[in-house]
Design brief:
Structural class: mainly alpha
Distance between the termini: 33 Å
Shape: globular
Mean pLDDT: 87
Number of strands: 0
Number of domains: 1
Protein name: MATE family efflux transporter
Membrane topology: Multi-pass membrane protein
Family: Belongs to the multi antimicrobial extrusion (MATE) (TC 2.A.66.1) family.
Subcellular location: Cell membrane
Helix content: over 70%
Keywords: Cell membrane, Membrane, Transmembrane, Transmembrane helix, Transport
Length: 441
């Protein structure tokens, strides 16, 4: 049967996207709860959480190949009817997660203080960030196991189980966080402990899911080497993101506690909505990988068109909603009047970028599903070097504050949009085949 021009039924797309939305939204939603709890301790603890949380995200997000790379490899195998091989990819990704995670938690104990001081300068903010980070990164192996688990389950088009697992883990964290911060009196450190407990529960449930699949659980070094090889471009791409985002947080921290705290509020909302928009991309990644693994280029291209339009519409809706909430939402995260006054300098950039983000994240998912990591790497690094980084550091030099930082983000997103649309139009990303995806040359 010809599939030229074939479209995925909306019901099928939503069946994958809606549970993925829950998974993607759960972690940043917990961070928003954490931000709201810590925000009422004052500007310095909130700024410490901003810096420590950014460093934690830097570490975990740098290893997204455990999630996105695993999905790309497993989706092609699943599309070719090789489910057992697809799940085995998840086993090896989990072994990688354990090894890398243990190394990270050891490094955190040694370097948390000097890294925090490098970014924020010596003082109260750096001290608070380092205390939070040393506890939080004890959960590095658990976070990475969860990433690997999400990756292989998405690849076999099962987004319901990850949702249940993540909700259990983050629900436990959300209940424990205010109890540990206030009644127990642990302050900022209490939020890190609560997070650690929830992460441990989620990781244990993902390991159990592999065990019940009854596949070989021993480590297989050639498969892990192949996964690391594919992860090369994804790591470099993520590094470009993190250099930009870390620079923005550092500049905000050096501008003052109020700017750092205001940036934390708007930035966490940006990250939350980014992952909400990314739910369509997760569905696209799984479906595109399976279509190409089954030899259907036209089906993959049809999915790309669909999710791009859906992403645009979704972004417009979110922009309108958060424009309407501009006078209400920030006050939920802090009662500090100086911080609230500063939030407005970033808010309208955040609102206006939602439609652009909807298309960008949708196409990211398409190209990740196709294994087009090399192009994504190059496009992201170019956009960062030309758009984001120069504006961030000019903002520090000329005291442009949050407006300068968020202008840099706007340039970054617009450049990414152009490069992704050009690639989508070319069709060169849609390469069929049943072999696991590897990094492009």
């Amino acid at each position: 049967m010809s599939d030229r021009g074939e479209r995925v039924p909306l019901r099928r797309l939503l069946a994958l996207a809606v549970p993925a939305l829950g998974v993607l939204a759960a972690e940043p939603l917990y961070v928003l709860v954490d931000t709201a709890v810590i925000g009422h301790l004052g500007a310095v603890p909130l700024a410490g959480l901003a810096l420590g949380g950014t460093l934690f995200t830097l570490v975990s997000s740098q290893l997204t190949f455990l999630s996105y790379g695993t999905t790309a490899r497993t989706a092609r195998l699943h599309g070719a009817g090789r489910r057992q091989d697809a799940v085995t990819e998840g086993v090896q990704a989990t072994w990688l997660a354990v090894g890398i995670g243990v190394a990270l938690l050891l490094l955190a104990q040694l370097f948390a203080v000097p890294v925090a001081e490098l970014l924020a300068g010596p003082g109260e903010i750096a001290d608070a960030a380092a205390r939070w980070l040393r506890i939080a990164l004890l959960g590095a192996p658990m976070v990475l196991i969860t990433m690997a688990g999400n990756g292989w389950m998405r690849g076999v088009q099962d987004t319901a189980r990850p949702l249940r697992i993540v909700l259990v883990g983050n629900g436990i964290s959300a209940v424990l966080c205010p109890l540990m911060v206030y009644p127990l009196g642990w302050g900022l450190e209490g939020s890190a402990v609560a997070n650690l407990v929830g992460q441990s529960v989620a990781a244990a449930l993902f390991v159990r899911a592999l065990v019940v699949e009854r596949v070989e659980l021993r480590p297989h070094l050639p498969t892990m080497r192949a996964q690391l090889g594919m992860g090369r471009d994804l790591v470099l791409r993520t590094a470009a993101f993190q250099v930009c985002f870390l620079s923005a947080t550092s500049v905000a921290a050096r501008t003052g506690a109020e700017s750092a705290a205001a940036h934390q509020v708007v930035w966490q909302l940006w990250m939350f909505l980014s992952l909400v928009l990314d739910s369509l991309a997760i569905a696209a990644q799984s479906l595109v990988g399976a279509a190409l693994g089954a030899g259907s280029k036209a089906r993959a291209e049809g999915i790309a068109r669909q999710v791009s339009w859906y992403g645009l519409g979704f972004g417009v809706v979110l922009g309108v909603v958060f424009a309407a909430l501009s006078g209400i939402l920030p006050a939920l995260f802090t009662s500090d009047e100086a911080v609230l006054a500063t939030v407005g300098h970033a808010w309208w950039f955040f609102v206006a970028l939602q439609p652009v983000a909807g298309v960008v994240f949708a196409l990211d998912g398409v190209f990740l599903g196709a294994g087009d990591a090399a192009y994504l790497r190059t496009a992201t690094m170019l956009s960062a070097a030309v758009g984001y980084l120069p504006m961030i550091w000019l903002a520090l030099a000329f005291d442009w504050g949050l407006a300068g930082i968020w202008t840099g983000l706007s340039l970054f997103m617009l450049l990414r949009l152009v490069t992704l649309l050009l690639r989508a139009r070319s069709g060169r990303w849609a390469v069929t085949g049943t072999a696991p995806v590897g990094a492009s040359a």
